[in-house]
Amino acid sequence: MGGGIAGLAAAFFLRDRGLDVTVLEGSPRLGGKLAVSPVAGVDVDEGAEALLARRPEGTDLIAALGLAGQLRSPGTTSSRIWTRGGLHPLPRRQFMGVPADVDELENSGILSPAGAQRARGDLRLPPTPRGGDVAVADYVGARFGPELVDRLVDPLLGGVYAGRSDELSFEATLGDLARASRQHRSLAEAAASLLPAPAPSPAAAPGHARPVFTTLAGGLGTLPAAVAAASGASVRTSAMTRELARIAGGWRLTIGPTRAPERLDADAVILAVPARPASRLLSGLAGAGPASASAALEEFRYASMAIVTLAYRAGAFPGPPEGSGYLVPAVDGHAVKAVTFSTVKWPHLRPAGADAAHAAHDADPVIVRCSVGRLGEEAVLQRDDSELAGLAAADLAAATGVRGAPAQARVTRWGGGLPQYTVGHRDRVTRIRAGVASEPGLAVCGAAYDGVGIPACIASARLAADQVLAYLETRDALAVGQ
User: Fold this and answer.
1) CA-to-CA distance for 373 and 413, rounded, in angstroms?
2) Domains (ranges, CATH) in the chain?
3) What is the pLDDT of residue 205?
4) Which of 6, 66, 163, 422 is placed for a possible disulfide with 457 were both Cys, Cβ 3.0 to 4.6 Å?
5) Which helix (H) or strand (E) holds 278?
6) Residues 79 and 327: beta-carbon distance below 8 Å
7) Cβ(452)–Cβ(48) under 8 Å?
8) Distance CA 335, CA 460 (A)
9) Which band of pLDDT confidence, cut at 50, 70 and 90, is reported for residue 482?
10) What was the pLDDT predicted at 363?
């Protein structure tokens, strides 16, 4: 149950096994945090607008749908940090804000001279002892100092989780770096070990390098409908599951309002829903396993956020927007935490023939996407849409010098949309999966477990589908043998 990308992908992975699959979605539409709608005549994603191209699960699924020809690459991924009174280039040699080149970091101007000098301490310090999991800010701050955490690491992690590095798990959010850090005395050296060797110069960099990110021509919001159609599943929206119960030979789901409940029986169930609904459904099952999983799911916190999409005439900017956008440190006190120049980052959104290096004709819109809201900052999201759009536009004007009001604005709210991978996350997920595994024919998947990005959600869907299929095959084999 659950009609986000994880639930739909799980249905897709079950499609070739001759199973009758039903997807139950409690809201009126499919797609979860994937949706697309027009702004100033341009179809722009309301939620996730890119997926990692170097992780194959997303692009493999798109290829299996026959949509590989619709994949589009960014025109640029160069980003900046708006801090200390200006826009500074994001260092190229960094891993989620952890620098591999402290000279490049210092030259960026992101840190004060004192902060840059402290960051160099990583190269001299002895190894920082670490037993179990720790907060990102604690470990990275011990190596480079708190200013680097505040002005570089926190904005990058905040862009993914809308969370804070003093709570986020080092092992869960920066897993590759956490592993590499055990092999290197310096964290900068560990970060460097995860990056490609630097090109001698920008001109020497290969022009055919595979892009880090990709999207679909019509927006990633078009993906859920394509997956649903290809899955062959029976898809129901506005079908909230209120109760899950074990019955002889399988499961019974109670759907709909209490005044008119509907019962649906199933051989197996995949819970592709956020942590709290999953916890509630598991709490109704007998046994220590479901109780343990339910308790672990109750520990999750979720951050709320909003995407404010603004359309400007090209001439409103003092010059063509540079790079794909910029990030904003929470310590600087701005409501907007990240900005994407959508029509710069994604050239396919511009009118045909528009020069990639310059703004389009003044009549053509420049689409800007502003992310608002971090964990603990829910108060800013209580403003109405027009006020929130005005706040985002004011921040954008302060950073870029754009003049005048936007021609059009769209506000999309994602209440409780992003699970927080706090310290101990991996142990928590282990407890959840162990508890769920004690109930044959039950599995979980989604953003709460192994990553919040689309490829990670699809990978968790594949794992859940494989678990269910293994159970059904074993059950059927035993039945034949009796």
Assistant:
1) 10
2) 5-32+225-300+422-481 (3.50.50.60), 88-203 (1.10.3110.10), 302-419 (3.90.660.20)
3) 46
4) 6
5) helix 275-283
6) yes
7) no
8) 33
9) low
10) 65
What residues contact residue 111 under an 8 Å CB cut-off, 6+ apart? Answer: 105, 119, 147, 148, 151, 152
Instruction: For residues 390 and 340, give the distance between their C-alpha atoms in angstroms, rounded to a whole number.
Output: 17
How much is the pTM? 0.93
Per-residue tokens: 332: 């600087």
Residue with the two structure tokens 């990240």: 338
Other C-beta atoms closer than 10 Å to the C-beta of 360 total 18
For tokens 């092992």, what's the residue?
171
3-state SS, residue 66: coil
- What is the pLDDT confidence band of residue 352, given thresholds at 50, 70 and 90? low
Q: What ranges in 100-248 are assigned the alpha helix state H?
A: 102-108, 113-119, 136-144, 146-148, 154-161, 170-173, 175-181, 187-193, 223-231
The answer to whether the CB of 371 falls within 8 A of the CB of 336 is yes
Helix (H, G, I), strand (E, B) or coil at 229: helix
- The model's pLDDT over 195-213, given as tens digits with 9 standing for 90+, comes to 988 766 544 444 455 678 9
Contact by Cβ (8 Å): 155, 338:
yes
pLDDT, tens only, 88-138: 999 999 999 999 999 999 999 999 999 999 999 999 999 999 989 999 999
